[in-house]
Protein 1
Amino acid sequence: MITQRPTIMNPYCEENFQHQFSVVTYNILADCNITPKRDYLYPLCTDQELYRTESQASIRNRLFRKEMTFLDGDICLLQEVDGFYAPIIDLFQKKLGYTSEYYEKSLGCREGLMISYRDTLFQNLETIPVDIHREIVIRAPSNIEASFLDSFHQPTNALILVLKHKPTQKVIIVCSTHILWDTLRSPDIQTLQACVLAQKIEEVQQKYGKVGEVGIIYAGDFNGENNHPCVQVTKNKGPISDELFSYLLKLRYIFEDRKAIPCFDCEDSEIALKFREMLFHNLDIRSSYEEVLGAESKYTTSDDESALSLDYIFHSPDLGVISVLVVDEHTCSEYYKNAPTEYFSSDHLPLKATFGINGIEEC
């Protein structure tokens, strides 16, 4: 079904770009994350449909290879890549002309992030693995005790590649992330993670040039829908607004009919209160799907608990969005029945956006 999704051109893109490249983000569902909730989240799936194991002949591996060949991204950002599966993807991608970088999570997690880029188009200037909790600790106010920081330590990471686009020599910072899920019980931690990671990207941007000269692609699984504070702070640079902060202070979620319903706790979030001064960033970025379609995708994930839109491709304004791969109604109707299936290799759907770029001398 992924191979039948249509592409929609950006009706607002009037510039004629000299070059273009495409970006794919895809949470591919790690085997190690299936087992703890196997019967709860995936009751309709057989073990043969669910587990890749180490066999390249597994159902999900064959389907994944077919999906990636169809997606044909110039830069591919993958989340939830099992440690045992990373070399298999690397070998497959290498045959297609990609170079890949992999970064496994901390605290004994056996999965991580992978970014693959097409050798003919990009040169990797720097690879930056990011332990998001470590970045929080570095930036934390001095009056916050180490024991409190340890109390919400989660194995959440990001992977940043600084790529040079060979035809134009433009530097593009590419960041893939997988923000904490925790069944949406910790929107305060999610929002803090999103802000700190954006601050880290800004530091890398400043290292390589002025704002507007260095492009940014910031994508992945943010584990929040469009109205979630972690997504809203990502889309809006500057400090968190008073209104959004008040909303975040008591926010919790419950699940009804596979939807995440906001509810509000009687107690304020201690994390939000202690870290309010860190809830900001200065990245000028926007959502590629929202820019083209006027809204985010209807769904990007589906299991027996929820059907939500959690994945995004953000970009800096110097990279013009030409088109996006749509999550159309037919795909939604099939995907809503739960995944993975014989048609979908993951419980997430991949997103793809194509960007226009001009050479430095043409800007």
Protein 2
Amino acid sequence: DMYAKCGSLEESRKVFDTLPNRDVVSWAAMIAGYARCGNFRLAVQCFEDMQRQGLKPVDVIFTSILAACS
């Protein structure tokens, strides 16, 4: 989340990709980072990847997706 908040999505994604267990919190941070930086396509792609992993989205994820769309 720190890298994404600083606008370094590449570093954020590298850290995310090395996580042994990605939970809803880590997915939410990645989605929010993409949305915050205006990368709607990657925010939605990340959201879809999370769902394919069998995780259910929480409210904050929907907020991030909606923010990315606006």
Protein 3
Amino acid sequence: KHVNQHNVGLLDNVDAFTATPNISLLLGDTFSESGVAVERVLEWAQFDNVHAIVGPAFSSEALPVSYVAGALSLPVLSYGATSGSLTVGHPFFSRVVPTDATYARALAKLVQSFGWQKIGILYIDDDFGGSMLREFGAAAGKLNIEIAVAVHFEYANMQSLSDAMSSLCHAMVRTIIVVTHENSLEDIARIADSAGLIGDGVTWLLGNPNVEPTTVADLSGSQELNRMFSGWIGLLRSNRTQIFSTLLSRLKPTDVDFESIPISEEELSQMPRIGACPTCGFAYDAVWTLAFAAARMQHADYRNGSALNQAIRQVRFKGVSGTVALDSKTGDTLAEERLFHVVNWAIEHDAESGLLGRRLIAQLDVSQGFLAKNESGPQWSDGSIGWTAPEDWQCGTGSIFNHNNRTCEVCPAGSFANKDTDKCELCGLGSVA
């Protein structure tokens, strides 16, 4: 609607223009299924007036969509697909969102800044999960962070998720990074709770900046989920707050065509509570990128997919998500992310409802670590508050707690676990462990 009205009010330092043709919108819900996403592309390919695709949001859908659309010379511009697998070999795919590599470096720096040296990873078995595992592994290795165990699970497969939790329990790690999508988060929390991995000194870190536990807890209406998510820690893009404040303060209900988008005015008004959609700003900028590309072509034949694709990668402007500039060869965004907000989810004890809230506790630079920290520190799963994570002393028989690695370690043969000194000590003469 803003594009067709030539309303650049939400963009910075962009002059009004009138050369852009009207953009018609066709919505296709993928239902988070790559097969459905491909079907939508094939349906649209039958129409002469479909010249480009904005989306999809998930890497697992973007990969097959990119292959099919590329064969049809149909440009794809994503606002949420972050996998590094999409950088090479996808000539008609571009994106305005940074790749997994940037977030993985920030996440590794967060682990190092807390002083943790050994962690476990639980990741979803799709392209996004595999990409994040590779990128984090590379970043963690440079910082001497050991990945004690990395286990995957299949989406909506409860047995697979239970088996993964058992592996995490067996590894006895106390810091776990979870790489998943929002639609799996409730199942993860409930099964982790059943496995004894919620509380008791276990710290969960979110490996996806687009996942919002507050939203999951609110939509479920479960007080139990509030407890399970309390103490979790994650990273948000530093421009995310700016995106939300810009869109929600300046985007009025009268600016929204509720007949064209699957959201009600009531849901829009509730976005400040649930955090809005993490990719809103990128999606908004993706549409404007397409508009500016069309204007650059000056009414040329938009059915020339190669020319439109090239024009998309030449666009430069300051959007609501920051600077929009794409690599002319790969289509990846050139915008560099260095600053992130460190956030902590905790039950709002001062609120009568006891809802789960999100607290900003620090700023993080991907090279320097913490730039600024609040005085109190995060609230951990056991309710304690401070910059030192609580340590679980209840390791199994014959094991001690390693404070540096935050893991339970089995004492070697011929020694026993002295719980008073938290050390493995040799058995005395005439005794056995």
